[in-house]
Write a structure and sequence with these properties.
Blueprint (H helix, E strand, L loop, with lengths): L2 H6 L4 H4 L4 H12 L4 H21 L1
Helix pairs in contact: 3-4
Length: 58
């Protein structure tokens, strides 16, 4: 199985949408550690915002 598929496995589509593979793996790890869905969503939003800023600055 390709690593890209494994990293995003079992992570809700709404959480995985808009993030890169590394961030998706980190979100999955946080979720498995018991972090609440609301905090995961906030973290996801921050990751997306940071990725957009990095794209604008390069």
């Amino acid at each position: 199985m390709p690593i890209k598929e494994r990293l995003g496995e079992e992570l809700e589509d709404s959480l995985a949408e808009g993030v890169d593979d590394l961030d998706r793996a980190y979100l999955k790890e946080l979720k498995e550690s018991g972090v609440s869905d609301s905090l995961l969503e906030q973290f996801r939003s921050m990751m997306i915002e940071q990725n957009e800023e990095e794209k604008e600055n390069h």
